[in-house]
Amino acid sequence: MENEDKYIKNIEQYIRSREPANRSGLLLGESAKRLDISISDLRQIEKPYTFIYQRLPVEVEGEILNLSSGIVLHNRARGPYKGGIRIDPNVDIWETTELARLMTIKTALANLELGGGKTGIKVDFEKIYKGLKGKKNFDQDFYQFCDMLKTNIMREFVDHFVERGLVRIYIPAPDMGSSSREMMFFYNRTHDPASVSAKPDGIEGWLPGRKEATGFGTAYATLKYLDQIGKDPSKVTVAIQGFGNVGSNAAHYLHKAGCKVVAVTDLYGGVHHRSGIDIPALKEYTEENRTVKGFDEKNVIDNEELFKLPVDILIPAASGHVINRKNCDTLGVRLVLVEAANMPVSYEAFERIREKGIELLPDNYVNSGGVIASDLEFRQGVGRVRYNREQVFEHLEKRFDEMFDEMTERKAAAGSLTHAAYDIAVERIYNAMKARSLI
Ligand code: NAD
Q: What pLDDT does residue 271 have?
């Protein structure tokens, strides 16, 4: 027994010693101090319940590629593990761990009866594609190839997922690199509408508005803040990094509200129009071409320049840590930084931005529209209820209003909206763990 304890403790210590210091860990620690939570209880809140490493052998043009994937099940004190599937070349286990932890915090902040988890699947599509380009009889374009490879990956991944008994224990959703198309493979295998969220339109248990929910929430949170400080939306300029699901929908709703979106970038290119980009035209273009590159070759911008642009609102809606120690002093944003991506601002940059007097709307709040809608979709799956589009958007607005009021109320005592968001979430997670005798 003693040996076994030592063995488990050693594994935990090993895992803990390897995880690099990160923003969510630091903010959790600060919250625990404010809330008078002991270090040992804090550790239980902080660390994941389970790590799963899964090798995925997938076939590409007659060859087998062994890809790495990781599932981190962080905390289910308040309900099933919930969190997206990221398919990206830069995935690593610590990124997946932090993203899973953020999901626990996000679901608690939104007061959903869900916990937090995350999946990372590491694939370098461009590198593999380049390697195949010269091969005889290989004539797929890049995006056809990505879809084909994702199909093979998802079939393999879902098989393991079901075999491990994770159905309804961990409920996946899209994240960077995945979409409703990839979620469909879960439903194809489980035939259970509650096993996955963001199912394609028209499939049993699908939710109208789920696709737009994260971008809608991002825009709603931004407009709510403008309203609080008495700023007219038609008088502000916006720059957005990332024009995928979140960035493009946020741009759509902000444009509709009268904001001037002056610059947008993605992985492959960018566009800058001082007088404001025609967002409906750009959306139409990217739906066809899957990138903003080529929309206007005369007015291009890259990510580095985008961050330096003097704009009122900056919305990073792509990957993590893009605003960091290196570029935080040259940021051009004047008013508010809206974290649509997960952890786009590193801890050091976060401190600098606060010192400069720029408001930061935190990721756990800003991008929670997706999981709030997923929660409704899950309720449909288990309860046979139906929500229409109006009800979904009304529900999102109500939740965002509640979260913002709660955060604003605790801002002064906590120090910032970000700290307030952590305090609210940590209190709820701690109380649930206590009530369930988990700590
Ligand atoms: P997506 O795959 O649909 O789009 C990602 C976009 O970012 C693409 O335009 C891509 O080209 C761009 N991009 C990727 N890396 C980039 C880089 N290094 N520089 C510039 N652009 C880059 O992904 P998404 O679902 O829109 O997710 C974006 C962010 O929002 C992620 O951080 C994700 O975790 C977060 N998020 C998404 C959801 C959701 O419902 N989809 C919910 C909550 C949070």
A: 98
Which residue(s) pair with 359 in the sheet? Answer: 336
Query: Burial of 384 by CB count in 10 Å (0-12 exposed, 13-18 middle, 19+ buried)?
Result: exposed
Which residue, among 186, 150, 149, 184, has the nearest Cα to 167 in the 3D structure?
Answer: 186
Q: How confident is the model at residue 199 (pLDDT cuts 50, 70, 90)?
A: very high
Does ligand 1 come within 6 angstroms of the Cβ of 369? no
Give the pLDDT confidence of 255-314 residue by residue, as tens digits.
999 999 999 999 999 999 999 999 999 999 999 999 999 999 999 999 999 999 999 999
How far apart, in whole angstroms, are the C-alpha atoms of residue 72 and residue 118? 5
Ligand 1 atom nearest to 319, measured from its CA: 32
243-254: per-residue pLDDT in tens?
A: 999 999 999 999
* CB distance 264 to ligand 1 below 6 Å: no
Pocket of ligand 1 contains residue 316 by CB under 6 Å: no
Measuring CA to CA, which residue among 128, 87, 35 is closest to residue 434?
35
Mention every residue, 6+ apart, whose C-beta is less than 8 A from residue 272. 262, 263, 299, 300, 301, 305, 306, 309
Cβ–ligand 1 contact at 248 (below 6 Å)? no
- 75 C-beta closer than 6 A to ligand 1: no
- State percent of the chain over pLDDT 70: 98
In this prediction, residue 4 has a pLDDT band, given cuts at 50, 70 and 90, of low
118 is an active site residue: yes
d(CA 429, CA 107): 10
210-228 vs 245-256: helix crossing angle, rounded to 10 = 50
Looking only at the bridges linking them, the beta strands covering 237-241 and 260-265 are parallel
Average pLDDT over residues 80-100: 96
Catalytic residue (choose from 33, 47, 82, 118):
118
Mutate to test the pocket of ligand 1, among 102, 121, 176 (most ligand atoms within 8 A of CB): 176
- Going by the DSSP 8-state scheme, the letter that residue 341 receives in this structure is S
Supply the residue whose CA is at minimum distance from atom 32 of ligand 1.
341
Burial of 232 per CB tally in 10 Å (0-12, 13-18, 19+): exposed
